[in-house]
Structures are given as structure tokens and as C-alpha cells.
Amino acid sequence: LLSVCRSCLVKYLEENNTCPTCRIVIHQSHPLQYIGHDRTMQDIVYKLVPGLQEAEMKKQREFYHKLGMEVPGDIKGETCSTKQHLDSHRNGETKADENSNKETSEEKQEEDNDYHRSDEQVSICLECNSSKLRGLKRKWIRCSAQATVLHLKKFIAKKLNLSSFNELDILCNEEILGKDHTLKFVVVTRWRFKKAPLLLHYRPKMDLL
Asked: Which of 7, 104, 149, 167 is 20–30 Å from 34 (CA)?
């Protein structure tokens, strides 16, 4: 397995379909669909390099502001500020009081019940493009960038009372999305430089012969 900077790898795969190290063909036409996010490696790098995470988030925010787009990292940025505040307490930079243990316990419980709200967020518009299915009453949703197309299928199936989420196809720019694609991957590869929300369409699954 190869771990490299995602932005560098995406740029490389825009013009190539091989591994940058061993030159083995990843996929003839859609190599970007076969790369994954190495969260463990990213966490290790962030811990080894002081200030890297904050610097990366700052660059990301400047990038979205430059394009006039919504900044999906706002909530995550607020979470990092909270984390820095907690770290300052742990390092003795502020005076501890008799309620510190109680507050820490409450904060930990709140963090455990976060339900991915502190993740980078993606705004989505889910439109139906088939007369065989009805549209959603609430087609505008906001969820974690780590959510997958499969999560969206299950969400739509539940809202439409379908017997199985396997009855659905979800498309972006008229291209069927793989069930394991994360929304972050879809935004980077199929909604680049376009303004939010990410527009997705759903329809009954079509069996290709």
C-alpha cells in the first residue's frame, strides 16, 4: 500500500492511470475511484508535525474563500479551537478549579455523542430524475464528508419506504456513483470548482446487460 499526499495524487491521476511509484495500472479510465483515505496515517502525521493540522485547515479555508464557495471545514475548525482550549488546560496554562474534572467528563461525553458533527460537512441536494419514484420532501441535507453513497441510498430508501436500498442508483453529472465512494471523494472528483450544494440525482437501479 502506498500513502502519499492526496492532493498530489489527485493531480497526478488527472493525467495518468498508473501508480506513481511502481507504475502498475490502477484503472484504465477511472483511477481516482480506487484510491482511499488513510486516516490513520494522517492522524500520525498531524501528531508528529506541530501546527500542521491548523495550517492545512487555514489553507483549505483560503482556497474555498478564493473560489467564493461555502467553507465545509467551518464546524471542524470550531472543534479544533475547542481542542486547543482543552489542551491549554491540560498543559497548565490556565488555573484548574474544583469543577474541572466534571467539565472534562461532560465534554468527553458530548464528544462521544458527536455523531460526526465535527467532521468536515458537505451540503447536498438530492433530486429525483425518474417518474417511477417520488421526490423527497426535504431534498437539502448536510452531512459528514466521510459519509458514503451507500449511506445516502439507505437514507433515500427509508424516506421513500422502499424495500431495499439496492433498488437505487445515485448519480452525479449523469454518472453512476459507486456505493463505497465518500462524499468528499465525490466533491473532489466530480464537483471540483463548482459551488455548493453538491447536486446528486437518484433513480431506480438499472441492470446493465
From this structure: 167
Range of 8's domain?
1-36
Return d(Cα 100, Cα 149) in angstroms, integer.
41
How many separate domains does the chain show?
2
CATH number reported for the structural domain that contains residue 181 in this entry: 3.10.20.90
Question: What is the C-alpha to C-alpha distance for residues 176 and 54, in angstroms, rounded to an integer?
Answer: 35
Inside any domain, residue 100: no
Confidence (pTM): 0.47
User: What's the burial of 140, exposed, middle or buried (CB within 10 Å: 0-12/13-18/19+)?
Assistant: exposed
Phi-psi region of 68 (alpha: psi -120 to 50; beta: other; left: phi over 0): left
**Residue at 54 is within a domain:** no
HEC secondary structure over 84-151: HHHHHHHCCCCCCCCCHHHHHHHHHHHHHCCCCCCCCEEEEEEEECCCCCCCCCCCEEEEECCCEHHH
Residue 60 within a domain: no
- Classify residue 20: in a domain, yes or no: yes
pLDDT, residue 9, reads 79
